[in-house]
Design a protein that fits this description.
Elements lengths: L2 H20 L3 E2 L6 E4 L10 E6 L6 E6 L4 E7 L1 E2 L16 E8 L2 E7 L4 E9 L6 E8 L35 H6 L2 E6 L9 E2 L2 E2 H18 L3 E4 L9 H10 L4 E6 L11 E6 L6 H16 L10 H31 L4 E9 L11 E5 L6 H7 L2 H30 L1
């Protein structure tokens, strides 16, 4: 077992052992929680809002089921033993509410709804003295009701594992060459309930997804294996993205964004590397935007890193960080040669959680900024996208060859 693999095994063992002993189950503050409806009661379903106040933030999941229409909320490490659902303010607005434990470490709230509804908002706010989970619902027509396909899909261990599709083999490529083929994970940021930046009628989530699909086609034509973390407009947590890339055997991880910053603060393509000391205003704002994904999913990772585990992660990162920096140099060079407009500092450091993996070289590529009119015109231009894809393919190819040459020298 290599030293890096041993470090990773020890680190994962530490993380697996820490949470159970670190803290007791969270509790619901029933007096500060409520179910409310908007507008006068005229015998028809009304928009509703469920607010659950907890004594600490926990991971959660929200979804709808049919037969009858139900809102389901799963909460990790929450104890409902001392509370009864009929005591919730506004419980009489719905046919029934039930809650309790349903799997080890997880509790479930099931709210029967007076008709078909859609979830218009779900989020966990940690700004107040106590975290508040808010779920807003609006009545919809039966044909617009979008429940899960079956109750069985809601009974899986949480959070749901990312769907990982194997990289298809190239029948024209020898099996030993397929095994050695470079695999790149393309990670289109945001998606689903989090559209990312919005400007000029465009959404960041859609732009980066389209770019990922175009890049995959070009990379596969070049003989490079590709795994895309999300294939459609759906939400995916930050940790799930790295887990999926690792399960796919990725050799390089590229997170794709097209973000927003106040006017004049940023323009042009920018490459970011993991740097926990980064503290400039722009990188702080972007880190807040990127890491809000996990707050939307109910995952508050603050304070979960054990000191020793953090040290082991840093040791493991001593091998991958220089490889990430090397790729960033290749990418910046190829973009410059392709005439891509870049930030005045094209390679920067930032505290983006999606770059924290200790075992996969990782970069975050801001293709441009939607809030900048020139960047926005580029991002929506197929010709510019083709140009950027070409630069990315050239950079990955050059980096891969350089990695192979370095590995050969180390074997000598």
């Amino acid at each position: 077992m290599t030293a890096l693999r041993l470090i990773l095994v020890l680190t994962m063992a530490l993380f697996a052992a820490l949470p159970a002993a670190a803290q007791d189950a969270a509790r619901l503050d029933l007096g500060a929680s409520s179910l409310t409806a908007q507008g006068p009661d005229r015998g028809h379903p009304r928009p509703m809002q469920l607010r659950l106040t907890l004594d600490r933030a926990v991971p959660y999941r929200v979804f709808l089921l049919d037969g009858p229409p139900r809102l389901v909320i799963d909460l990790k490490d929450v104890d409902f033993d001392q509370t009864r659902p009929e005591q919730l303010f506004g419980a009489d607005l719905v046919p029934a509410i039930r809650w309790g434990r349903f799997q080890r470490g997880w509790s479930r709230i099931v709210t029967e709804l007076p008709g078909p509804y859609a979830v218009t908002q779900s989020g966990l706010s940690t700004r107040a003295m106590q975290p508040v989970l808010t779920v807003a619902l609006k009545p919809v027509q039966p044909e617009d009701f979008r429940p899960r396909a079956s109750a069985s899909t809601a009974s899986r261990t949480l959070p749901e594992p990312a769907t990982v599709t194997a990289t298809p083999d190239d029948p024209a490529m020898p099996k030993d060459a397929q095994a050695d083929r470079l695999i790149v994970a393309l990670d289109p940021g945001h998606g689903g309930i989090d559209p990312g930046a919005l400007a000029g009628g465009e959404s960041e989530a859609r732009i980066v997804l389209d770019f990922a699909h175009a890049a995959r086609e070009a990379l596969e034509r070049a003989g490079i294996g590709v795994f895309v973390t999300r294939e459609e407009d759906r939400f995916m947590g930050l940790e799930a993205r790295m887990t999926a890339a690792r399960a796919a055997g990725a050799d390089l991880f590229i997170s794709l964004h097209a973000d927003a910053l106040p006017a004049g603060q940023a323009a042009g393509a920018t490459i970011y590397l993991w740097d926990p000391t980064a503290n400039n205003a722009a990188s702080r704002l972007l880190a807040q935007r990127h890491d809000r994904d996990d707050l939307l999913a109910g995952l508050d990772l603050t304070g979960t890193d054990d000191a020793l585990a953090g040290v082991l992660m840093d040791i493991a990162r001593t091998e991958t960080q220089p490889r990430s920096e090397n790729f960033a140099k290749f990418l910046a060079s190829r973009m410059a040669l392709a005439g891509i407009d870049m930030h005045s500092r094209p390679v920067q450091g930032a505290r983006f959680s999606v770059l924290k993996s200790p075992d996969i070289p990782s970069v975050l590529l801001e293709l441009g900024f939607l809030t900048d009119p020139v960047d926005r015109a580029h991002l929506t231009d197929p010709a510019w996208r083709s140009q950027m894809v070409g630069a990315l393919v050239a950079a990955i190819g050059g980096w891969s060859r350089d990695e192979g040459a370095r590995a050969a020298l180390l074997r000598q």
